[in-house]
From TrEMBL, chain A:
Protein's UniProt name: VOC domain-containing protein
Annotated SUPFAM superfamilies: Glyoxalase/Bleomycin resistance protein/Dihydroxybiphenyl dioxygenase
One Pfam entry name: Glyoxalase
PROSITE patterns linked: VOC
Automatic annotation (TrEMBL), chain B:
Pfam families linked to this entry: Sigma70_r2 (PF04542), Sigma70_r4_2 (PF08281)
Stretches assigned to the RNA polymerase sigma factor 70 region 4 type domain: 117-165
Gene3D superfamilies: 1.10.1740.10, Winged helix-like DNA-binding domain superfamily/Winged helix DNA-binding domain
Domain RNA polymerase sigma-70 region: 17-88
Record GO terms (molecular function): DNA binding; sigma factor activity
Organism: Actinophytocola xinjiangensis
Protein name as it appears in the record: RNA polymerase subunit sigma-24
GO biological process, one term: DNA-templated transcription initiation
Alphabetical list of SUPFAM superfamilies matching this protein: Sigma2 domain of RNA polymerase sigma factors, Sigma3 and sigma4 domains of RNA polymerase sigma factors
Length: 170, 175
């Protein structure tokens, strides 16, 4: 005997919602995804860089290195950026500008000379990334070359930070 | 293409899926709650909750590659949450459980789908949610139990009461 309740089964029945709602939700979704959300936690270890011009750096790292802004920026009372975050494929890079409001915090942007650290970033296309970086003002320290560990290059970005770009062997 | 390879944000997949998935999610919710404004609210809740789910550090692989069926599952939970809220409000108004349950299943009749939907609308939220998940969605009892956050035993009992309430309303019930 069949159960009469079984006749209530509803097949998948797509319905287009009102266009205004669809647009509004798309914007809300894009906001939640692209500006990052406080619900994501940072990995245990994240580099925290000081740059002289964080707004330019955020744009450069996004446009040249494929990062995405995440979370809210913190803007100091003097207009400097006290804290901002970028997402690099799940890793987090934190940025801040020095501010005269905090003279006791001993940080500053890199100065020319030997580097104490390098940021190692895996990219899909090392050659293309280096070409874009050069066009956008980076110094190419080591042109792309095939190494045992993959296709690799070293650049210094316009804010003075050194990056090793690598595409590991397949 | 210079996007980092390490681990793309799985939430981006949701944005790509949005146009395709929206009518399915909205249609699923509208057919079950039969209220356009509520269906919009629950649709929005579904997509925004999905962002959090795919980004959760312990998200399963099936979750980090979002699909329409997975989103329907999220929508189902949002619908069940909604009915739980409504049921709580209803409990404040009148006692719903503890009714006598003399009804014997199975029930030999053919349901008129349109009338059945109207009857469902008139049932209390906890009866409506159990019947919707079990019969409109066609979920097995253990799955219904999982969505409602009840034990299988409690869900079976709820379904018996819900069927009885439905039957009373359908057979004689007030219009």
């Amino acid at each position: 005997m069949t159960d009469p309740f079984d006749s209530l089964h509803l097949p998948d029945s797509p319905v287009d919602p009102p266009g205004a709602f669809a647009d509004r939700l798309r914007r809300a979704l894009a906001d939640a995804i692209l500006t990052g959300a406080p619900m994501i936690n940072a990995p245990a270890l994240s580099p925290y860089l000081v740059v002289a011009d964080a707004r330019s750096a955020l744009a450069w790292y996004s446009e040249v290195l494929g990062a995405r802004p995440r979370g809210e920026r913190h803007v100091n009372a003097d207009g400097t950026i006290g804290h901002a975050e970028l997402d690099f494929g799940g890793a987090v890079l934190m940025l801040a500008e020095p501010s005269p409001l905090y003279p006791d915090v001993p940080v500053g942007p890199p100065t020319p000379g030997p580097f104490s650290h390098t940021l190692h970033l895996e990219v899909a296309d090392v050659d293309a990334t280096v070409a874009t970086a050069r066009r956008r003002g980076a110094t190419v320290e080591r042109a792309p070359a095939d190494e045992p560990y993959g296709r690799a290059a070293v650049i210094v970005d316009p804010f003075g930070h050194r990056w090793m770009l690598n595409r590991p062997p397949a | 293409m210079n996007a980092p390879r390490a681990r793309p944000d799985p939430a981006l997949g949701l944005l790509e899926l949005y146009e395709e998935a929206l009518p399915h999610v909205y249609g699923y919710l509208l057919a079950r709650c039969r209220d356009a404004a509520l269906a919009e609210d629950l649709t929005a809740e579904t997509f925004l909750a999905a962002v959090a789910s795919v980004r959760a550090p312990d998200a399963a692989a099936s979750v980090t590659a979002p699909s329409v069926p997975w989103l329907i599952g999220v929508a189902r939970h949002k619908l069940a949450d909604h009915w739980r809220r409504v049921a709580r409000e209803e409990r404040g108004l009148r006692r719903l459980d503890g009714e006598p349950e003399p009804v014997t299943d199975p029930w030999e009749t053919t349901l008129d789908a349109i009338r059945a939907r109207a009857v469902l609308d008139r049932l209390g939220a906890h009866h409506r949610s159990a019947l919707t998940l079990r019969y409109l969605d066609g979920l097995a009892v253990p799955e219904v139990a999982r969505v409602l956050g009840r034990t299988v035993h409690a869900t079976e009992a709820l379904l018996v009461r819900a069927r009885a309430a439905f039957r009373r309303e359908y057979q004689g019930g007030s219009p």
